[in-house]
Amino acid sequence: MPGDKTFHMTPEEFRRHGHAVVDWIADYYGRIESYPVLSRAQPGEIRASLPADPPAEGESFPAILADIEKLILPGITHWQSPNFYAYFPSNASGPAILGDLLSSGLGVQGMLWATNPACTELETHVLDWLVHMLGLPQKFLSTSSGGGVIQDTASSASLCALLAARERATDFASNRRGCDGKLVAYTSSQAHSSLEKGAQIAGIGRDNLRLVEVDETFAMRPEALARQIEQDRRAGLVPFFVCGTVGTTSSNAIDPVREIARICGEHKLWLHVDAAMSGTAALCPEFRCRRRVRRQLLLQSPQMDVHQLRLRLLLRCRPQGPHPDFERAAGIPAQPGHRNRGRHRLSRLADSARAALSGAQAVVRDPALWRGRPAAPHPAACGLGAEVRGLGKKR
Predict the structure, then answer these.
(1) Are residues 70 and 164 in the same domain?
(2) Between 20 and 30 A from 135 (CA), which of 11, 17, 223, 358?
(3) Contact 227/191 with Cβ under 8 angstroms?
């Protein structure tokens, strides 16, 4: 009936309120530097400002936006602030926000091609683009034996790789009857804690995840990996999975992927590379070479966060250019001319980072204390004057 009250937002109401929200977001970005980066709220302060009981009736949209300003903003740590230098760079941008809005407006479910053909084919096609952009071998294309998938987090990507490796090692028997406690996985002692969580979820068990020792640059020691694999084989266990890291969370250390790939090839192990932090550096052609492509032929599953590149490069730079082990692991040729081009670009970024960090209100923090290990500042972080402390990170 025309006079009946409706609880649905009409298209015109949505248009009006949508404009108000976009204006609010635009104003927020215009004044974001006026806020302290780290929230000054005390534990429980935000909840104490909210009603104890749920509202019996809805509020007007202007009242809701006013509550955002009054009650929510004081409890916000402003990740998008240009003064934010913890964890990884701000992840939002104007185009990304509008893309989120458009995606939410369509509200598609893309679990199968039939539930949304455009969603499925767009994802497949864009990830094929990424193969070309990163210089990955053709086997990673969907038109070959590969094909990429967007996961909700890098942690989920690691879990998917673990599950795929588990099923290959057991010829899909573990899906039917579970694990028998003999499968063993390997990663460095500096790897992200999602590998431990994934091993527990996948039924491998935390005790069967070997944390391989690292060198003075916090990179995995290949000889220690080979020694541990041989030891486990002699004990009647079944090594099946190795995860190398290109950019650890605590120090941006780069594991020697080429040597690890050789060991995995000899033992027929699944090699996964967690490049969530720094893998997208391969977008720069100067960080690729033929040796890098050859070692990727032994790689089963790379993962990366495409939003984490900018600050990672900044924090990895020293005054004279990229850290040597970054150049070595990234496969940058030793020719001075080629090397100096990348060095010059990154040195300029490093200069900007050092200047900004001198007044930064947030710091880079080391999650090494997750497992009770002593936290140690990485030379690259020290060179930028960044403070390193123990604090975990969800990704």
Answers:
(1) no
(2) 223
(3) no
Crossing angle between the packed helical segments 11-31 and 94-106, to the nearest 10 degrees: 160
d(CA 229, CA 234): 9
Q: Are 105 and 79 in contact (CB under 8 A)?
A: no
Distance of CA 104 to the CA centre of its chain: 23
Does residue 180 form part of some domain? yes
Each residue's pLDDT tens digit, 317-326: 323 333 343 3
Q: What is the mean pLDDT of residues 116-130?
A: 92
Cβ-based neighbour number of residue 302 at 10 Å:
24
**Confidence (pLDDT) at 313:** 35
Angle formed by the axes of helices 336-357 and 309-316, nearest 10°: 100
How many other β-carbons are positioned within 10 Å of the β-carbon of residue 178? 10
Q: Are residues 155 and 244 in the same domain?
A: yes
Q: Domain tally for the chain?
A: 2
Euclidean distance between CA atoms 255 and 188, whole angstroms: 8
Give the closest residue to 61 by CA, choosing from 22, 95, 27. Answer: 22
Is 39 a domain residue? yes
Q: Enter the tokens of residue 230.
A: 């041989």
Whether 367 is in a domain gets the answer no
Do the Cβ atoms of 111 and 149 come closer than 8 Å?
no
Note down the domain range covering 223: 151-361
My answer on whether 89 and 165 are in the same domain is no
Chain-centre distance of CA 353, in angstroms? 21
